[in-house]
Design a protein that fits this description.
2-methylcitrate dehydratase PrpD; 2 domains; two-stranded antiparallel ribbon; 427 residues; alpha+beta
């Protein structure tokens, strides 16, 4: 692939946009960021706060621990963390550097301030609007479609910033994700000048392995990672699942280490990368091969997730499991046919996993997704595959990816609505 060609340059831009650091689950972090920005515009600590959020935000914030809050959970906690100690210019690292002394002000603030949470009736799956008040003064910040995509800022009736409708989100204004195809991803991985991608991939290796190791070492969530290791501590298949799950154990449990995300999600970033890193170490392949394998894994995950969107009833680690399996197939010397069938097999195996919010059980879903990916790869290695007409599988990897994308974005839309209702008002 030509280094100056459109596809090559687009893939570089996609990787730089997508593989960024976040500390904490990205939905509560979006709330913290929005709240920090609103406090900054107001210029003072508010005494009243109104948080309006789309159903998917509410779903993904409900049960997850917010870092730097002494183990607290929920929307109000995330907003308070952003207001009390958040860096309004920090993006997805908005609450990464809250000083220890400031953390202890969060609970008193929550007890004193009037804070309301309202569900937004929105077509956008990811939307947050926070209004902060102090006396007669107020400031309002509105985020939509992307976790840090501010579309408007208002203070005391004056619009300070507003994106026009044709500007869209960062994704809509950015590179053309429709240029992602499995064939071109493999070509790119084979020919990429690694100096163009090594920094971002090394960050992914360092950050994601650090939090995985922390999840193995410490007590977080349901300890899915350490539970898996008890049965087979030395087997690479088990370690690939366990360490990916342990990273989520730690992250969902409020660990204060950053993760390099994929498709807007730390869990998808962990699922995509950690199995490939561990298999590369087990096989003793070169650093170059590992980096090229991570290119395949990350771009396949992004490709498979593009049609689904950021948030859905379709659990995103399914596509990340397919990406990881594609990366493992690549570092094992798999060709385009092998990688394509691995992706199809994986999507066919585990596509029924639903997203019912961010919480401890996400780690177990990661383990299942990695296992599905490994099974999908091993099936093809043994001459087995799913064919056109097997469920939602269509002839050709691109058609199959498109079909499962439609499932996640359109066919499961009503399922997503019902999941949110069941989480807010249990039957």
């Amino acid at each position: 692939m030509e280094r100056n060609g459109e596809v090559y340059r687009t893939y570089i831009e996609i990787l730089e946009r997508e593989l960024v650091c976040a500390m904490g689950c990205t939905e509560p972090i979006a709330i913290a960021y929005c709240a920090a920005k609103a406090r900054s515009v107001l210029g003072e600590i508010p005494d009243r706060v109104t948080i309006c959020a789309s159903g998917n935000i509410i779903k993904n914030v409900k049960s997850v621990v917010v870092p730097n809050t002494e183990g607290r959970r929920g929307i109000k906690v995330a907003a308070a963390a952003g207001i009390i100690g958040g860096n309004e210019n920090g993006g997805l690292l908005v609450i990464a550097d809250i000083p220890p002394g400031v953390k202890y002000h969060i609970e008193p603030y929550l007890n004193q301030v009037e804070m309301d949470v309202e569900a937004l009736d929105s077509e956008s799956l990811l939307e947050v609007e926070i209004t902060v008040h102090l006396g007669d003064e107020y400031a309002k910040v509105h985020i939509k479609d992307e976790h840090t995509n501010i579309i408007s800022i208002e203070k005391n009736g004056q619009v300070l910033f507003e994106k026009s409708e044709d500007e869209g989100s960062d994704i809509e204004d950015g590179p053309d994700y429709k240029l992602l195809t499995v064939a071109d991803i493999i070509d790119f991985a084979n020919t990429c000048d690694l100096s163009d991608v090594e920094a971002v991939l090394q960050k992914q290796i360092d950050c994601n392995m650090a939090i995985a190791e922390e999840g193995i070492k410490e007590d977080f969530g349901a300890n899915v990672g350490t539970t898996l290791l008890k049965d087979d501590p030395d087997g690479i298949r088990t370690r690939a699942k366990a360490y990916a799950a342990a990273g989520s154990d730690a992250r969902m449990g409020g660990c204060e280490l950053p993760v390099v995300i994929n498709s807007g999600s730390g869990n998808q970033g962990l699922t995509t990368s950690i199995p490939v890193i561990l298999y590369a170490r087990e096989l003793g392949v070169s650093k170059e091969t590992l980096l090229r394998g991570l290119l395949v894994a990350n771009l396949v995950t992004l490709h498979a997730k593009t049609d689904i969107g950021r948030l859905s009833a379709y659990c995103g680690v399914v596509t990340a499991g397919a990406g990881a399996a594609a990366g493992i197939a690549y570092i094992n010397g798999g060709d385009r046919k092998t990688i394509s069938h691995t992706i199809v097999n994986t999507l066919a195996i585990s596509s029924g996993i639903v997203c019912d919010g961010a919480k401890a059980s996400c780690a177990a879903k990661i383990a299942v997704a990695v296992e599905s990916g490994l099974l999908g790869y091993e099936m093809y290695q043994n001459g087995q595959q799913f064919y056109d007409g097997d469920g939602l599988v269509l002839k050709g990897v691109e058609n199959t990816i498109r079909n499962y994308g439609y499932l996640g974005r359109v066919a499961m839309h009503e399922t997503n609505t019902e999941i949110i209702h069941m989480m807010i008002e249990p039957k």
